[in-house]
Specification:
By secondary structure, the chain is α/β, with parallel strands linked by helices. The protein has two domains: 160 residues, Rossmann fold (3-Layer(aba) Sandwich), CATH 3.40.50; 197 residues, Glycogen Phosphorylase B (Rossmann fold). It is 33% helix and 16% strand. It contains 16 helices and 16 strands. The strands form four sheets. The chain has a seven-stranded parallel β-sheet with strand order 5-4-3-6-7-10-11. It has a five-stranded parallel β-sheet with strand order 14-13-12-15-16. The protein has a two-stranded antiparallel sheet with strand order 1-2. The radius of gyration is 26 Å and the shape is globular. The N terminus is likely disordered.
Length: 418
Amino acid sequence: MGSGSDGSNDAAGLTFLALHPLLAPPNTLTMKLLFVSNLSPLGAGAYMMKWRAQMKLLFVNHLARFARSTYTISRYAQVAGELGHEVAVFGEPNADAPSLPYSLDVDRFDFAVFVVHVPSDFPDLPYLARLLDKMPKDRRIIIDCLGRYNDTVRIGHDFNHLEKVDGHQGWEWIEGFQAVSDRILQPTLAPLRSDVQTFLFHGFDPSAVLRPYSSPHEAAAAWAGTNGTRKPYGLAYIGNNWQRWTQVRQLLERLEPIRDQIGPMLLTGWDWGARPEWDIELGLHGADVEPDLLRRIGVETQGAIPFDTVNARMSEARFSPIVHRPLFNELRLVTNRTFETFTADTMPLLILPEEIVAAIYGDHAGPLRPDDDVAERVKDMLRRPEFYWDAVLKTRAHLASHHSYQQRFKELASILDT
């Protein structure tokens, strides 16, 4: 069919034409015609399937109790039922996350969502073969949490392709992703590749806020201990020691002069007590740490804790820093802790680039981002906690409005509709 003189389609507006049998001349053959045409003048989205009413998502990920995206996936599972969606994790029930739903019935689901951090996030055979055989490629999606689907990016000794650890070079990641799916999403505001879409994936769950204060005054009184309560730690960072030491060391050294005002400090996660032998042998410097410095400052170290206890542990401290790896700052990647920290009963310290703070946390989060003189900012927080808790509560409201898991489902539905 051609176009009219005004550029419109000749068939526009013709959806179904049929000569009714009662109107047909005698002894003539009745013909029923089905015209197929896009009624939209823009010619877009004529035959797309809409998934907004209900989505059945099968997440594919090697769940880990102490790391990666298990917390985020658990939030999707919780919120899905509230929105009329269904979420399950591909595979047999996993003791590391026993409360999550699991399924091997691939045919029941609309999409397979691969959440990829490490090679083991792809299932072993024969599970992978079953998944790829039963779920068409155009209904498989990859969420690339670590920026693997890029050329090799190195920031200092932080990088996106761990060839010495997992044996996979950059081109293998790219070709492997392309073999599984044509749609690659990354939790970044600024993808480097034109064939990657932005989807922040992680989110903020208002129902997980440990103490939803009604006012900054109430929050400041509880936080400062003037209501009879007292937190056991002044500052606590909860997270594993992988490519974090540079920022954490700088923060601790700057706070050392006021450590008595802050109170006890805590680092909880893998490898804060000492650099592991495998990191030394491979020469990676990904788990650097200086035990002598920690002893000098009086920083306590503890091992990793389960994903579902992080909120409570952060709430044991007055301050909890949000720290991203140098690679993540470069690629503008966010993590679960980017949002989860604001659900804890603690005052977040945003040790992040200014543009990330503005883009994610909104207009009221600025006071929570210390400048180079972090000690002076923390001292002011101790003097004027109500002012800073006002920023925390307003930032929580911004996150609830713009980064809730309900919002993430809407964003994902829009991506799937494209």
